[in-house]
Amino acid sequence: MSAPLLGQMMDVPLTVSSLIEHAARHHGSAQIVSRRIEGDIHRYTYRECEVRAKQLAQALMALNVAPGERVGTLAWNGYRHLEAYFGVTGFGAVCHTVNPRLFPEQIAWIVNHADDRYVLFDVTFAALVDALAPQCPNVRGWIALCDESHRPPMRTEVLCYETLLAAQDGNYAWPALDERSASNLCYTSGTTGNPKGALYTHRSSVLHAYGASLPDAMGLSARDAVLPVVPMFHVNAWGIPHAAPLTGAKLVLPGKDLDGKSLYELMEAEGVTASAGVPTVWLGLLAYMRGAGVHFSTLKRTVIGGSACPPAMLRSFEDDYAVQVVHAWGMTEMSPLGTLSRLNWEQSQRPREARQALLEKQGRVIFGVDMKIVGDDGGELPWDGATSGDLHVRGPWVIDRYYRQESGSPLVDGWFPTGDVATIDPDGFLHITDRSKDVIKSGGEWISSIDLENIAVAHPAIAEAACIACAHPRWTERPLIVAVKKPGAAVTRDELLTFFEGKVAKWWLPDDAVFVDELPHTATGKLQKLKLRERFRSYVLPTALAEAACPFDPAQDAAGAGNVASPGEKPLSMRD
Ligand code: AMP
């Protein structure tokens, strides 16, 4: 066989530093605005950001950090954190963003597992660092992201970021690194077992930034002012710190205050046009805006993901505030973007309800990601919008293996099993119905806990809801709603249960509802269903009691009403 004819184009490595270099050269005057921990607003340009990132690279090299070594961060969304994104990776070290909301023992475990050489931290986390330092003997130094006058009193001996930078001149040329070398490290926020590390490459980060910027993805451009509410310690703020310099978008970084009022005021003051965050933060923003009777004057769209966006939230943004919601799905192992919900031309001509139904799903993959759903036998399942299966993905920004778990690849036939359960419809729109471990199996059929939660939060008196499986003698598991009422709102258990009627198949109707003051969340704002299931492990459903009193009497089985006639028979499937 003859040798292939090779193309004759430049082999320019895709490196993270090229993003900030591009922004500094071609969008040099575009702004980066940060609400600082110090309490004021900091404003500078991409041009200034690059110089300081280079000073940081020089400072870290002066501290003998070698390419390939990890430098951790414990920081909010701010300009110094952004400088670390480029300064650490630019000379070949690995920027390891650590989630400060985790328990200190978990953080210590992660820092030790990553083997971080230095850790940069916002002064908000001074006490945390004092607790961590004795547990992390391999960290050579802790660097406070402040100047000398803001140095917090601490037990740990720390270095001062501004002093380190001031000692460098910023006269440094980014080296041409191997694009397959590691650039960033993020750990999953796993609720079971130890967290797992996803080690991104320069190439995967740049390709992901291209993908994220596409018009039918985040659609970022130089005409945007983008405010990532999603933290820079959570999967690189979904790639926005990379996509913003790629496109030249103005970047607005909100710091530590993520309450509705603070976010709203910053968005208005800085003319923010695009944003991104998890549903929980938008709950706070919408509640504030409703209470204050205010509207957005510049915000056009927001990406909502990380957990399912309740349709009621989507409608409120669109109908009450004329803000387009783009529902997105992804995960740490995917850098994180996988799918986003945007209609194509033909879909946008359909009746409003049909359009709405599509937009409520998690959407279509971006070029760079492929997906499929598989059954228990590993065979691919049809894209009919009804059959649900395990979701598998692949692509150049999906992990091949976990960091320091060299022995076992998680891949199955070259695909990464996400642990999510989903349907895909004939339009190619993904609908996540559950995490596989959260799925409710009633009489052998799956009930989507996410769908039931979405209905619960559409009730005007409900602020937040979780749906978990509860043991049932006949059906094995039945759904229980655990809900938090809105402040001052009144609703009874029966009223809430009645609210589900007519909205789902009868056998999906929750068996019971209980009210709690608050629900447990993970450090990234996801519902901690494992904890809830533990709490309600010995909870006895009224339907289970009835069952015990009179086994196999369908009349007593509220859940099964109209569903089955005889024991052992399966409930009707979702499609019926
Ligand atoms: P993380 O790695 O912390 O970003 O978590 C990823 C997981 O969050 C996914 O595997 C899903 O279970 C969940 N997730 C992310 N986005 C969504 C979404 N839009 N709807 C439902 N679940 C989501």
UniProtKB/TrEMBL annotation:
Molecular-function GO terms, alphabetical: ligase activity, forming carbon-sulfur bonds
A Pfam family matched in the record: AMP-binding_C
Annotated AMP-binding enzyme C-terminal domain residues: 452-526
Keyword terms, alphabetized: Ligase
CDD domains named in the record: ttLC_FACS_AlkK_like (cd12119)
Gene3D superfamilies: 3.30.300.30, N-terminal domain of ligase-like
Domain AMP-dependent synthetase/ligase: residue ranges: 21-403
Annotated InterPro entries: AMP-bd_C (IPR025110), AMP-bd_C_sf (IPR045851), AMP-binding_CS (IPR020845), AMP-dep_synth/lig_dom (IPR000873), ANL_N_sf (IPR042099), ATP-dep_AMP-bd_enzyme (IPR050237)
Family: Belongs to the ATP-dependent AMP-binding enzyme family.
Name recorded for this polypeptide: Fatty-acyl-CoA synthase
